[in-house]
TrEMBL record:
Residues 59-196 form the PID domain. GO terms for biological process: positive regulation of ruffle assembly; regulation of Rho protein signal transduction; Rho protein signal transduction. Residues 1-40, 201-241, 272-295 are annotated as: Disordered. It comes from Champsocephalus esox (pike icefish). This is PID domain-containing protein. Pfam families: EPS8_2nd, PTB. Residues 277-287 have a biased composition (Basic residues). Signal peptide: none annotated. Residues 217-241 have a biased composition (Low complexity). PANTHER family: EPIDERMAL GROWTH FACTOR RECEPTOR KINASE SUBSTRATE 8, EPIDERMAL GROWTH FACTOR RECEPTOR KINASE SUBSTRATE EPS8-RELATED PROTEIN. SMART domains: PTB (SM00462).
Length: 402
């Protein structure tokens, strides 16, 4: 798949950026004509309803939702000769915050393993079972606790690729058993092993495991977080203190979502650059190994995701205005200054200022909105589903209603 290690990146959104655009051209997206929806929330809800596992015993086809973590070329020069070497390399990347997961479908058939786009179900990669040199589950070796390793050498490849996947929904050892049974049956054994393997997976694989404590999500680096000072104003008693704490929590969640989006843009840029380099260097029109996943990784965020991020920038500025006397290390002024670098990158990646200008609530405050016109409310939502806590006064009103 990618077969390369990405260049060093700034950890968090408050660093420097090596590339101002995402490499997908500068054509501006079409302006929005309707009220912008929260793209992050919509994507989150969509992914919740995706079928995690599908097994068709009649066609011997099974599908598993997995997270592609990284791919390496198995090469002595790089000190990578085994699955264990690859897992060690993965740990190093994770420690640097450079593991970017990509959700996809791993489909096992009688004579092949395919990787499919989670949304479109289109083929990303196709591995005949004859190209599978090794299939290995690595359990509880790091924060990625259910790793599936595929060592693949396709026709014409001089060196194999090692692909690593996190398997949350069905454990990696069960998927390993499925793939190995397909490989064995393809070799023409007397008894077919695959039907029994699929029955075992159906019996034991329906439980939805949760991430273990401390397991990072798709991005392992953290933003510089704000903190309420010990000298916060106390006018209004507990209500004032609770309001400051609530505003700080909202700001931190906004910064997390902005960082996640910026990291997604960076990874998209890197994948696009690597894909372009591979296409330039190869001969012929046939898709090379790993280009399918690189194509998926290079896909820029949707217009709705850009809008959601821009709205959160505006909300972050509002939060900093409210918290300027209550946060330090970094201060509100420092955070305001640092936010302009990622904002510039997002605007440039969107193809210019046309899209930001079209975002309702981005260019006008409520006071500037004509009184006779409806002002569309902005409901702040976060990709992890977090909701701001109610203030004590709001809790009291709720209790009185009951």
């Amino acid at each position: 798949m990618n077969g390369y290690e990405t260049p060093p990146l700034a950890s968090g959104i408050f660093g420097s950026y090596g590339s101002p655009t995402n490499g997908h051209g500068s054509q501006s997206p079409e302006p929005l004509h309707q009220k912008a929806k929260s793209g992050a929330k919509a994507l989150y809800e969509q992914r919740k309803h995706v079928t995690k596992t599908s097994i068709n015993s009649l066609t011997d086809t099974s599908q598993y939702q997995v997270e592609h973590l990284s791919s390496f070329i198995v090469d002595r020069k790089d000190g990578l000769l085994s699955v264990e070497d690859g897992v060690r390399r993965l740990r190093l990347l994770e420690a640097k915050g450079k593991v970017w997961t990509q959700e996809m479908i791993l489909q096992v058939e009688e004579r092949s393993v395919r990787l499919l786009d989670l949304d479109t179900q289109k083929d990303l990669e196709y591995f005949p079972v004859s190209s599978l040199l090794q299939v290995q589950a690595v359990m509880n070796s790091c924060s990625f606790d259910s790793l599936l390793a595929l060592v693949v050498r396709e026709t014409g490849q001089s060196k194999p690729d090692l692909h690593l996947f996190q398997c949350d929904h069905i454990k990696a050892n069960l998927i390993q058993a499925d793939i190995e049974s397909a490989v064995t049956d393809a070799k023409g054994g007397k008894e077919r092993r695959r039907p029994e393997a699929l029955r075992m997976i159906l019996k034991s694989g329906r439980k939805e495991p949760s991430r273990p404590p401390g397991r990072p999500g798709p991005m392992s680096s953290k933003t510089v977080r704000s903190s309420a000072t010990s000298t916060r104003r106390t006018r209004g008693g507990d209500t004032s203190a609770a309001r400051v704490d609530r505003d700080v929590q909202i700001l931190n969640h906004i910064l997390d979502d902005v960082e996640f989006f910026v990291m997604k843009l960076q990874k998209s840029t890197e994948a696009f650059s690597e894909l372009s380099k591979r296409k330039k260097n190869k001969k012929g029109k046939k898709k090379g190994p790993g280009e399918g996943v690189l194509t998926l990784r290079s896909k820029p965020p949707s217009e709705e995701e850009f809008v959601d991020c821009l709205q959160k920038f505006k909300q972050a500025f509002n939060q900093l205005g409210k918290l300027r006397d209550n946060i330090q290390n970094p201060s509100a002024e420092d955070l305001l200054h640092f936010l302009f670098s990622p904002l510039r990158m997002v605007v440039q990646s969107a193809g210019g200022s046309d899209l930001p200008r079209s975002v309702l609530g981005w260019t006008k405050s409520r006071l500037e909105w004509p009184k006779e016109h409806y002002f569309p409310p902005f409901v702040l939502t976060f990709r992890d589903g977090w909701e701001p806590p109610l203030l004590p006064t709001a809790i009291s009103r709720e209790n009185r209603k009951r």
